[in-house]
């Protein structure tokens, strides 16, 4: 299983990329900070990682009304990693 699942792209994270050289990725829940650092440096060989911060995004209640009544559920728990770079730049849109 891959450690890096997908890059996260939002308005707030785009500002972090421009101002602080920080990038966000959805990563596997059981991955550690050294594993994430190694995966980033292998996938993007032109960058050097300065710091890795991780957080577990908690589950939230979700629900919707359907013909058969209210359907309730919860979103999944996932792990987010914020990567700060020493040098280099990651081109997230070059892979599209």
Plain-language structure description:
This protein has 96 residues and is an alpha+beta fold. It has one domain (4-63, 73-89): RRM (RNA recognition motif) domain (Alpha-Beta Plaits), CATH 3.30.70. It is built from two helices and six strands; from the N terminus they run βαβαββββ. Strands 1-2-6-3 form a four-stranded antiparallel beta sheet. The protein has a two-stranded antiparallel ribbon with strand order 4-5. A hairpin with a 2-residue loop joins β4 (61-66) and β5. The protein is elongated, with a radius of gyration of 16 Å. The two termini are 22 Å apart. The model has no long low-confidence stretch (mean pLDDT 93).
